[in-house]
Design a protein that fits this description.
Keywords: Disulfide bond, Immunoglobulin domain, Repeat, Signal. One of its GO terms (cellular component) is neuron projection. With 290 residues, this protein is an all-beta fold. It has no helices and 24 strands. The strands form six sheets. Strands 6, 9, 10, 12, 13, 15, 18 and 19 form an eight-stranded mixed beta sheet that branches. A hairpin with a 4-residue loop joins strand 18 and strand 19. 19% of the residues are buried.
Length: 290
């Protein structure tokens, strides 16, 4: 009133740079300061000048009302991702999919809820919601979606031939999430790691794919037969069987080997188109697909 302040808030002052000008100065503006302010001029009649103050607030994602940062869903189910955001003005939420090692991909239909119907293993990605309202900085939340599915076993070849006393390597490819049991079986019994007989190794090929190898260091007569690549998790199991047979160079003519560990591999379903197509496995031993 006049040149006097009648409010205890030290952030608010009345400034009068000129005789006919009165300014209300708010420092360190808070959300609670938003509202309608009126300037009264004591004339007859009294003149009023209302001013609406809108306090802008950068976006904020509510942790308790949003999806957790890591979610699991079974293949075929529906998953709902929620990103609950607040701010002034109300923010708009946009969703992005971020495949590992790749650029982000924008998802249509912006909104706080993203629904994935009939989730497949290809939906297992990192999703990101971004809330923006023109007031920096935008709010971002990252949600990893893991799609669980039962194992699938694939054999690069169904038959492989090798001579006695030679080493050879059997290989199978397993896709699953999560991975639990990945084993080789021979004559119905699981094969265990053995320094002088067997070497079993597991290689990660992708997000949900591994290659399981079995190296037989020196083939004995009793090693010939059918080998089963077996995988299981809580959702199910799968297996494929391949044959290791005795190979004699007198029975089939093959190109001159470059190593002593080259097996003969037959695969009637290959797509090579030529009979003597040379390949190399991850351990450096070459073979010929027929």
């Amino acid at each position: 009133m006049g040149n006097r302040r009648i409010i205890s808030d030290d952030r608010i002052t009345v400034e009068r740079p000129f005789i006919v000008e009165w300014n209300l100065h708010l420092r360190k503006v808070m959300l609670s300061d938003a509202g309608t302010y009126e300037c009264h001029i004591n004339t007859s009649p009294v003149q009023l000048s209302p001013i609406q103050l809108v306090v802008q607030e950068p976006p904020r994602i509510l942790e308790s009302a949003s999806s957790p940062v890591s979610m699991r869903v079974k293949e075929g189910e529906t998953v709902q991702l929620l990103c609950n955001a607040t701010g002034t003005p109300p923010p708009e939420v946009t969703w992005y999919k971020r495949p590992p090692g790749k650029d982000q991909v924008g998802i249509m239909n912006p909104g706080e809820v993203l629904v994935i119907h009939n989730a497949s293993r290809t939906c297992a990605e990192v999703y990101q919601c971004r809330a923006s309202n023109g007031v920096d900085p935008p709010a971002v939340r990252t949600i990893s979606v893991h799609v669980e599915f039962q194992p699938e076993v694939v054999l690069p070849t169904k038959r492989i031939g090798q001579s006695l006393s030679r080493p050879t390597i059997l290989e199978c490819i397993i896709s699953a999430y999560p991975h639990n049991v990945n084993r080789w079986r021979f004559n119905g019994s699981f094969i265990s790691q053995s320094a002088d007989r067997y070497s079993i190794e597991l290689y990660k090929d992708g997000e949900n794919q591994v290659t399981l190898t079995l190296r037989i260091n020196s083939i004995r007569e009793s090693d010939y037969g059918r080998y089963e690549c077996y995988a299981s998790n809580l959702l199910g199991e799968d297996s494929e069987t391949m044959e290791l047979y005795k190979y004699s160079r007198e029975e089939k003519t093959v190109p001159t080997p470059t190593t002593t560990a080259r097996p003969w591999i037959e695969n009637p379903q290959n797509n090579f188109g030529t009979k003597d197509h040379q390949v190399s496995n991850r351990n450096g031993h070459s073979g010929y697909y027929g």
